[in-house]
TrEMBL record:
PANTHER family according to UniProt: CILIA- AND FLAGELLA-ASSOCIATED PROTEIN 57
Name of this chain's protein: WD-40 repeat
Protein's organism: hydrothermal vent metagenome
């Protein structure tokens, strides 16, 4: 018997394995199979346990995502179905993180689900290349790998593709985040090496990060930061991955050269906080060398150079610094002689000279000349403005800005006016059209960009602090280039306000219908509170349903019966309660009542694979042939159960 899918529970107590249409739950503690379940008219392809280890989520060959409780054979729910397009679609990759389940298909579709709240769906891709592998980095970051070896990084809270990286191979079968979440390791089912990638920068850190004896079948990082690799030949290879403490120790001992060498050898250390500390230490030494050279203290400069001379990656940096200061006396001469074009030209050739006092004085002189020229332009006195800037017109870096001013460019003058009035929105809007405007000497980058302000507004909306959100939104109202975003934010504020009012009035029907209509509300503090309550009630109802207590399920969920958008889930639980009751009656050999309930079940919920399997079981054990009418064979409306008379008739049986 060939195993086609396996899954370990997060609590490490259970192992699920499957063959064709049957899955088995094996207790790792008691070393025995505790449950065997057969899926009717379908085949299992992939499996994964839920975060709490209670449920097994199964992807089938027919394109369905099913939910089973580990200790029960009844289907709890059908979470998702892939659309049938030109050919059958099915899941080729599934993964989960807390309450999120990601499903990628052979048709390139990519959906994010919440198994407890089925209305919370986020379709990231409708179609594309087959998805081979998926991996959550954290709650809001997902990586997908398609058949062509393209890695895509999604920011889930914004439903946005933020990075695309082309891997050195196709058939990616594993993606693993390292301790530093910006870096991942990937493997291919056709290659015998593992590649390291920085997803933040979108670059390959090292193609052959680890060479293996054969192609990689499976890999995982243990709690001890050991990378455990199982190859095609079932060989186990263990590799100790670098940890930040290795780098920290070298920094504390001031062994900077060794620290940088370690980073060269172990690129996964890039991006750690310790790496930033190392860079800061190097920068401080660089600035001290710079100060010594400015003071013409060559002895001190050479002494400091010895601290960093053995750092290979900084060698060119230091050489450039010393070479630049060979020309510092010449820069002074140009400045004193008011040969500004030559002075700026020298700085362009030797960039470290821009940190000298002479260069700062050059920039101050240009700023004063520019401000005075601008004043003359406003008075329509172009000749005076031109005379003030005459000394800089041949400076390559200043020429474009000077031309814009002297030609009285409409957008540029508006930009300068926005700088004077500190109107950061107009500044940023014009900079998007004309990036060169940032070269204006009067321009200073604002402390908070428009994008950062939008993020702050989003935070206030999700927190329910609508007054603060409105206040910040008003500050951006003049920013035309983000008008659609501003309209959307205003709509979000409006809907959160409605949700808050409905909650205050105890109008739960409106609350949940708003959550299901406007999915962004699920990420608000109030939305999370309401959904947590829903999940709590659903869990209780599920236990009742597994015990066949339909009346108990109805009573438990009575407060949600009018919520149109959640009727599918309620119907699933009622269907589960009905099937569980019928199974119980068959087990007790109460065939007459089981038969009556089977007919009632078909009238309300219709026929499906699981009901047909139950009918076969009934007929086999009772030796009684069920008579199904043409009407009962017809497809039933999913929400037929909502007709009170039908359901009441069932409960009274």
């Amino acid at each position: 018997m060939k195993t086609i899918a396996t899954a370990f529970s997060p609590d490490e107590k259970l192992l699920a394995f499957a063959h064709n249409n049957t899955f088995y739950i094996f207790s790792l503690e008691n070393k025995n199979i505790i449950k065997t379940t057969k899926i009717a008219n379908d085949a299992i392809d992939k499996m994964i346990f839920s975060e709490d280890s209670l449920y097994l989520l199964i992807a089938t060959k027919n394109g369905r995502i099913l939910k089973y409780r580990y200790n029960n054979s009844s289907l709890i729910d059908r979470l998702y179905s892939f659309r049938y397009k030109q050919k059958p679609s099915y899941a080729t990759a599934i993964t989960r993180y807390k309450n999120k389940l990601a499903c990628g298909g052979n048709d390139g579709s990519l959906a994010i689900l919440d198994p407890d709240i089925q209305m919370k769906r986020n379709i990231l891709m409708e179609s594309g290349e087959k998805i081979d592998c998926l991996c959550f980095v954290d709650e809001n970051k997902l990586i997908s790998a398609d058949a062509s070896g393209t890695l895509k990084v999604y920011q889930l809270d914004k439903s946005k593709l933020i990075q695309t990286i082309h891997a050195p191979f196709t058939n990616i079968n594993h993606i693993i985040p390292t301790q530093n979440k910006n870096n991942i390791l990937i493997s291919s089912s056709e290659e015998n090496y593992i590649c390291a990638i920085d997803i933040e920068k979108g670059v390959i850190l090292k193609t052959h990060y680890i060479d293996c004896e054969n192609t990689v079948n499976f890999m995982i990082i243990s709690n001890e930061n050991l990378l455990c690799i199982i190859t095609k030949e079932k060989l186990l290879q263990k590799v100790k991955l670098p940890v930040s403490s290795d780098l920290q120790q070298l920094i504390e001992n001031n062994e900077l050269a060794k620290a940088y060498k370690l980073i060269e050898e172990e690129p996964l250390l890039n991006g750690y906080a310790e790496y930033e500390i190392l860079e800061q230490k190097y920068h401080k030494i660089y600035l001290r060398i710079l100060e010594a050279l400015i003071d013409n203290d060559k002895t001190e400069a050479l002494k400091l150079k010895k601290l960093v001379i053995n750092i290979k990656s900084k060698e060119a940096d230091i050489q450039t610094l010393f070479r630049a200061f060979e020309h510092y006396p010449q820069l002074k001469k140009y400045y004193i002689g008011k040969q500004y074009a030559l002075a700026y030209g020298l700085v362009m050739k030797h960039p470290p000279l821009q940190y000298t006092p002479i260069y700062k004085q050059l920039e101050e002189k240009f700023l004063n000349a520019f401000v005075n020229a601008k004043r003359h332009i406003e008075l329509n006195n172009v000749p005076h403005a031109k005379a003030l800037l005459q000394e800089y017109i041949t400076v390559i870096s200043k020429r474009p800005i000077i031309k814009l001013l002297l030609q009285k460019d409409k957008d540029f003058l508006q930009f300068l006016k926005a700088i004077d009035k500190k109107n950061f929105q107009i500044q940023e809007e014009l900079l998007l059209k004309h990036p060169i405007f940032k070269l204006a000497p009067t321009y200073k980058k604002p402390k908070q960009s428009i994008e950062e302000t939008i993020d702050t507004i989003e935070y206030f909306i999700n927190d329910g602090n609508l007054l603060e959100a409105k206040s910040l939104l008003l500050q951006l109202k003049a920013t035309q280039h983000i008008k659609p975003t501003l309209i959307f934010l205003a709509q979000k504020i409006q809907q959160v306000n409605k949700l808050q009012y409905a909650y205050k009035e105890n109008d739960f029907k409106t609350c949940y219908e708003l959550l299901d209509k406007f999915h962004f509300l699920n990420d608000t503090k109030l939305g999370i509170l309401l959904n947590n309550y829903w999940v709590k009630v659903i869990k209780k109802s599920e236990i009742m349903a597994l015990n066949g207590d339909m009346e108990g399920v109805l009573n438990q969920l009575s407060q949600f019966l009018d919520v149109q958008s959640r009727k599918y889930k309620i119907g699933s639980l009622l269907r589960l309660a009905s099937l569980s009751k019928i199974k119980s009656l068959i087990a007790k050999e109460n065939y007459e009542m089981a038969k009556n309930l089977l007919y009632s079940h078909i009238d309300i919920f219709g026929l499906d694979n699981e009901v047909r399997a139950l009918m076969e079981l009934y007929e086999s054990l009772s030796k009684d042939k069920l008579a199904i009418t043409q009407e009962q064979n017809e497809r039933r409306d999913r929400n037929r159960w909502t007709k009170e008379s039908i359901l009441q008739k069932y409960i009274l049986k």
